[in-house]
Amino acid sequence: MKKLIAVIALLPLLLGCAKLDVNPLSEGSSENWYADETEITLALNDLYRTYLWDFETNYTTERMSDNWTQRQAIDAFPAGSINSEWSRSEDLWLSTYKGITRANTIINSLDKAAGKVSEAKIKQLAGEAHFMRAVFYSRLIFYYGDVPFYTGYLDIEEAFKLGRTDKEVILRQAYQDFDLAIESLPVSYGSSDLKRATKGAAMAFKARAALYMGDWGVARDAAKACMDLQVYTLHPKYDEYFLSKTRNSPETIFALPRSFELGSSWTAKNFYTRTPGGSSVAQPSWDLFCAYPCTDGLPIDESPLFDPREPFKNRDPRCAMTIVEFGTEHLGVIYDPNPYATKVLNVETGKKVTNKDTRSVDTYASYNGLTLKKGVDKDWSDNNETDFDIRIMRYADVLLMYAEAKIELDEIDGSVLDAINAVRARAYEVDVTNTAAYPALTTTSPEQLRKELRNERRIEFAWENRRFDDLLRWRLAEKALTRPIYGVLDPNDLKDRVVDQDLWFYSQAPEVDENWLPDFSALHSAGTVKVLVERNFDKDRQYLFPIPSKEIIINENLKQNPNY
């Protein structure tokens, strides 16, 4: 496994690999490093760098889910075109094993600090390293299944012989690492802005690892333990939580901070509208838009409250907090993708300006009429940069993981309803006990609760890199990622075929199935919507990622996943 061996810091003799990282400056050499608190902390800090968390950043997995539309382009994963040379799998494999190796090195070197660092501090530092190793191994077994496994040092000969270890064995080790982290880590680090791993983070990630592997009892207990800490609460306002100005919220359990002051920001131009200066390359999908129920809790094809002329009206508040409502102010101008609206109001100047957010004016405006609002504010458009924190675990996820585990265990009680309703009530900005002010769940049917819980996760975590994993673990990818991606007709076709100008978006609600997945085929047959691109997920192979071909070629003991 060329890349795996590279991260073990043993490859200067082999092949001159371009991605070689034999002796990173953050660690020093294993012979003389890890001797004091500063050196160990520097080594640990590397495990918080964003390259090790690529699947959690910048909408990486959203691109592979049914929450995403990008004009008439499509990611390789939903296109069904991935193979053993798929770069995303190669990069994930490399970075994750790099993280594991560095965590192993820290864990196995802490004895050097004995007598120089307090036992309490060594315990905490070890807890961080065990936390990281558990997270990384949990990631690997979810995406790849059985993988190479090691917790110590490997020489070159051993590394070339390393085959795949049963994922259940690795999961047990991950649980042990999480438990050690839970025992060793503090509940908080005081007022520090840096979101280091905490006791609550270890509990929450243990719950996620167990949930992803269908280990419901462990997931339930770990999520409940995190809840019982009573240090996390839901942020009062859903939309405010995702803005760059929101730091250190009591909802955040684990995040990677970014800030302009520290030189850590993100280029945002592709994800906001064209009239204020963005490029609107990608946007939320119609599939996601249809997932938001009406305020009566019913899907749009069942609710009498849905009006295709005003499709945002009477919808779950998270709809307009995630996707910009037509005709409302956004980044200083009125957002209106209606092909008849060639001018819009600049709210700040009070003057009409050319509407670059309709395709009748600008060919590259949103192809489905939608645009992202969640987390978007003026700091995106003033210089095309933003520095919002990368939120990887938050309390809403813990509540819904707890509820899901209890549903799957057939342990439905008041705590299940309370957990889901707390998340839902926050969206409506009402107290959970005010059940008349939001569509509170009261059913105890496992089938209905499962359906509601799964869609609650989708709309709560839209564009937060959670949907893709859920599609894989629920085995819904074969349904969600085999339907076409739809959008608005081209302007001239729309004006020819749709007589009512108020129905330019789509003329009626699509049918929504038991998985809250919309079917636009009837509208397409009627000629009122357009297929932008087809999706072709392959259920016979894509529920597991391919092991990179470079690893297979160099190690005869490493076997490929089926059908790659």
TrEMBL record:
Gene Ontology cellular-component terms listed: cell outer membrane
Signal peptide: 1-18
Pfam families membership: SusD-like_3 (PF14322), SusD_RagB (PF07980)
Keywords for the protein's UniProt record, in alphabetical order: Cell outer membrane, Membrane, Signal
Keyword flag NAD: no
Start and end residues of each RagB/SusD domain: 272-564
Matches recorded under SUPFAM superfamilies: TPR-like
Subcellular location: Cell outer membrane
Residues of the SusD-like N-terminal domain: 57-210
InterPro entries, A to Z: SusD-like_N (IPR033985), SusD_RagB_dom (IPR012944), TPR-like_helical_dom_sf (IPR011990)
Family: Belongs to the SusD family.
The name this protein goes by in its record: RagB/SusD family nutrient uptake outer membrane protein
